[in-house]
Design brief:
381 residues; Jelly Rolls; nine-stranded antiparallel beta sheet; eight-stranded antiparallel beta sheet; 5 helices; 15% helix; binds 2-acetamido-2-deoxy-beta-D-glucopyranose; lectin
Length: 381
């Protein structure tokens, strides 16, 4: 755990200034840039190993990158499960901002697979970490087919996982992107991609963690005399004189008596009838807006007797691990720059110094790799 405060030791600082400085202290609970020694910090799980379904991680900067020395961990086998985690000193985010951030690059054209990470609490057997291991927060992109291209933000509350009810589209290209989840002590949150806010709101409204504060009064009944007819027949409208005399059908004036018609044998010839264009059906008064319209009846909202507020709704009292647990049909997802801290500005800066610094060079490298790939395809055919 690092305290990134300005050093105030041996300096005489007025008390007021000192308190200002302490406010700007970033507490970093975990930061992983995947430099040398990363393997001592991360534990590969044995999950799915006995079925030969556990995928290998590749320690690499990938096929295209902005800095070949800046490595991360990449899924390297198709149709495999992946589970890896790292431990940090246990902490609670009570009264603190929680920032959870990492970068992810799908070098494969990802058609179905996750790119999310998890925060876990309490004691976890990291060697057994897998799909069934309970987690506190799951956050990051998920892609499957055309329908699922979203950022997950699943919060565990009261031993139940709750999905974010808002739609947050994720990035779908083959470049690195930084995903940031921020949880504030006032129970609000922000989701950022590449340091740009994509969603913000409240834990109360955007997840169903607690029962709703208010509900429709189940006892309420629509009053007998409630007028919910928006339109009524115009009482002023009168049937025009002679309306009922208009016949439904009229003789076809264009019809001709056939040449071979024999009045004696066939009877007197009468023209066949056709529908009368003047005939408009039975008369109905026109409709007008009902001046007494009261709108659609709705039951009044009342306080939900089952609602109990939880001022610690946002609190995870013993966060202790960060992990990746994924199923991948096509491998090639590369994770890097994992950060758990309490300081939004620090996270922003880290994203700029890593992803931000390298993104243009990475894009150029990708464009070149793509051009080479297309050229090779064209050469073959
Ligand atoms: C690891 O990644 C590098 C860079 O993309 C690649 O050349 C190498 O073949 C990969 N190794 C494995 C075992 O997948
Ligand atoms: C927690 O879950 C239990 C069991 O589902 C339920 O009875 C209880 O009301 C829940 N508490 C809250 C605060 O949601």
């Amino acid at each position: 755990m690092a305290d990134l405060c300005l050093s105030t030791r041996n300096v005489i600082v007025p008390l007021l200034l000192l308190s200002l400085i302490s406010v700007s202290c970033a507490k970093v609970f975990f930061e992983e840039r995947f430099d040398d020694g990363w393997e001592n910090r991360w534990v590969k799980s044995d999950w799915k190993k006995d079925e030969n379904m556990a995928g290998e991680w590749n320690y690499t900067s990938g096929k295209w990158n902005g800095d070949p020395n800046d490595k991360g961990i990449q899924t390297s086998e198709d149709y495999r499960f992946y589970a890896i985690s790292a431990e940090f000193p246990e902490f609670s985010n009570k009264d603190k901002t929680l920032v959870f951030q990492f970068s992810v690059k799908h070098e494969q054209k990802l058609d179905c697979g996750g790119g999310y990470m998890k925060l876990l609490s309490g004691e976890v057997d990291q060697k057994k970490f897998g799909g069934d291991t309970p987690y506190s927060i799951m956050f990051g992109p998920d892609i499957c087919g055309y329908s699922t291209k979203k950022v997950h933000a699943i919060l565990n509350y009261n031993e139940t996982n709750h999905l974010l009810k808002k739609d947050v589209p994720c990035e779908t290209d083959q470049l690195s992107h930084v995903y940031t989840f921020i949880l504030h002590p006032d129970a609000t949150y922000n989701i950022l991609i590449d340091n740009v806010e994509k969603k913000s709101g409240s834990l109360y409204s955007d997840w169903d963690l607690l029962p709703p504060k208010t509900i429709k009064d189940p006892e309420a009944k629509k009053p007998e005399d409630w007028d919910d007819k928006e339109y009524i027949p115009d009482p002023e409208d009168k049937k025009p004189e002679g309306y009922d005399d208009i016949p439904k059908e009229i003789p076809d004036v264009d019809a001709k008596k056939p040449e071979d018609w024999d009045d004696e044998e066939d009877g007197e010839w009468t023209a066949p009838t056709i529908p009368n264009p003047e005939y408009k059906g039975p008369w109905k008064p026109k409709k007008i807006k009902n001046p007494n319209y009261q709108g659609k009846w709705k039951a009044p909202m009342i306080d939900n007797p089952d609602f109990m507020d939880d001022p610690d709704l946002y609190v995870y009292p013993n966060l202790k691990y960060v992990g990746v647990e994924l199923w991948q049909v096509k491998s090639g997802t590369l994770f890097d720059n994992v950060l758990i801290c309490d300081d939004v500005e620090y996270a922003k800066k880290l994203a700029e110094e890593t992803w931000g610094k390298n993104k243009d060079a990475e894009k150029a490298a990708f464009d070149e790799a793509e051009k080479k790939r297309v050229d090779e395809v064209n050469y073959k055919f």
